[in-house]
Design goal:
alpha+beta, 2 helices, about 15% helix
Length: about 150
């Protein structure tokens, strides 16, 4: 995996610009969550939903979002603000027992025709062995569904 110096936008809020194939994304903001070295693209989660793999040339570091008005004293802005759901998922992840492994989550197909039952699997990243199958409510499982399947497998 690339290190942060190789992919300096990881974890940063970014602005999308200069896209020709999907010009409707230009001007939108997201967070560069990871970097795919094989394609040379960042995985960007848009602030208003959806995620895309985008070339570094189409991304620039963006300023933090405008602060929301609040009657209480504002806390300093963080590089990445978590929603209540994301915080709850993070706490569940911290509660998992430690193992000397990492996991790969795979869907059994990427279209409704390929995977009408929305099945997926958790695989050991070290051995490639299937740890557990799981079924999602939708074609693209949510982070909560992945985590629930992982908790059940461990």
């Amino acid at each position: 995996l690339p290190t942060v110096p190789d992919a300096p936008l990881i974890g940063q809020r970014v602005l999308i610009e200069g896209l020709q194939a999907k010009p409707e994304l230009n001007g939108r903001h997201g967070v560069a969550s990871s970097f795919d070295g094989s394609s040379g693209r960042y995985c960007v989660s848009l602030e208003d939903g959806g995620s895309f793999k985008l070339k570094p040339a189409n991304l620039s570091k963006a300023a933090a979002p405008p602060a929301r008005a609040s009657s209480s004293t504002a806390e300093p802005a963080a590089a990445l603000t978590l929603t209540a759901t994301e915080k709850a998922l993070q706490e569940r992840l911290r509660g998992l027992r430690t193992v000397e492994d990492f996991w790969v989550f795979r869907r059994m197909g990427y279209t409704e025709a390929e995977n009408p039952s929305h099945m997926g699997m958790i695989m050991s990243g070290n051995s490639g062995m299937v740890v557990a199958p799981f079924q999602s409510k939708q074609l693209a499982p949510t982070a909560a569904e992945y985590l629930t399947a992982l908790e059940a497998a461990l």
